[in-house]
Amino acid sequence: MRQFAKPALALVDSMRAAAAEDPMRAIAFGGAPGSNSHQAAMQFAPEALPLPCFSFEDALDAVATGAAGCAMIPIENSQHGRVADIHFLLPESGLYIVAEQFMRITHDLMALGDGPFEAAYSHPQALGQSRHFLAERGIVGLAYADTAGAAAFVAESGNPFIAAIAPRLAADLYGLKIIEQGVEDAHDNTTRFVALAKDPLDPATITDAQAMTTFIFEVKNIPAALYKALGCFATNGVNMTKLESYQKGASFAATTFFADIEGAPGDPRVDVALEELAFQTNEVRLLGSYRQARKRG
Ligand SMILES: O=C(O)C(=O)Cc1ccccc1
C-alpha cells in the first residue's frame, strides 16, 4: 500500500496543497510529516514548503516532474551505513546533488499502550540504529516505509501491543505516548542527507566553503582496475572521502563505485584527475558539486 495511514492524511493533504501553490519553493522528502527527512528539510531550508511523499523515489519524482524545487534524501548513517537503494535511485533520477546536510538523529519508542510490545515498526535505518535496544527487550523490528509513517500506522491500528520507533514529533502529531526516549544505540548517531535539484550548482559559485563532488564510475573488467582508477586521485593530490561499490546488472563483472572527493571541476587537480579517470574506466558520471557542510576527518 503506497498510502499514508489515516492519522497522517489531513496534514499530508494540507502540506501538499500549500506546495502545489508554489512548487519551486517546495522541498520534497520521503516520509510522513514528522519524519527525520522532514526535519532535515526544514533545518536546511526553513522557509521552504515541505512536500511529504510516500517514498524516496516519489520525492525524487516530485523534483523531476516540477512538483518541488528540490528533495532532501538521507544517504548514509554513522551507525547503520548506507541507506538502501539510494545508490541506484540517485543516478537513475537524473537529478543533481546541490547540498549536503548532517543531522543528529534520536529515536523514541512510542505506542498507544504501555507494553510489553510484540513488535516495533519503523524505517529499516531506524531499526538498524536501535538494534541492541530492540534485542535486549525481545521486541521484533518490522520495516515500514518511514519512521513517522510507522507512528501514524500504529496510531491507526488501535493495537496497544505494537510500537513505533520514530522522532518525538511523530508522537505529538499522531497521538502516541512516548515509552522510552533516545533508543538509538549510539548517542552520536548522525545521518548525512543530500539535497537534489534538476539543475547542477555551478562549482565556480562555491567560493565560501570547501567544495565536494559526488560521482559514480564503472571500472573496466581487468586486473588492478580499481587501483588504476584510484591512482588518478592519488597522483593529483585529490582527497577521496567516500568510496562504495555496488553491482549493476547480473554479470557481476564490472563494478560500479559511488565516490565523494574534496574539490570540484574547475580546480585543475580535480579536472586532471577526472580526465584520467575517464580514460581508466567504462563510465564516469558526475552527480553534483556542493558546499561541504562538515569538515571530514
Ligand atoms: O523514516 C525517516 O524518518 C527518514 O527520514 C529516513 C531516516 C530514518 C532513520 C534515520 C534517518 C533517516
TrEMBL record:
Domain ACT stretches: 214-291
Pathway: Amino-acid biosynthesis; L-phenylalanine biosynthesis; phenylpyruvate from prephenate: step 1/1
Keyword Metal-binding among UniProt keywords: no
Keywords noted in UniProt: Amino-acid biosynthesis, Aromatic amino acid biosynthesis, Lyase, Phenylalanine biosynthesis
Catalysed conversion reaction: prephenate + H(+) = 3-phenylpyruvate + CO2 + H2O
Keyword Amino-acid biosynthesis: yes
EC number(s) stated in the UniProt entry for this protein: 4.2.1.51
GO annotation (BP), single: L-phenylalanine biosynthetic process
Broadest EC class assigned to this enzyme: lyase
GO molecular function annotations of the record: prephenate dehydratase activity
InterPro entries, per the entry: ACT-like_dom_sf, ACT_dom, Chor_mutase/pphenate_deHydtase, Preph_deHydtase, Preph_deHydtase_CS
Prephenate dehydratase domain ranges (all copies): 26-198
Positions bearing the site annotation: Essential for prephenate dehydratase activity: T191
GO CC terms, sorted: cytoplasm
Protein name per its UniProtKB record: prephenate dehydratase
Source species of the chain: Erythrobacter mangrovi
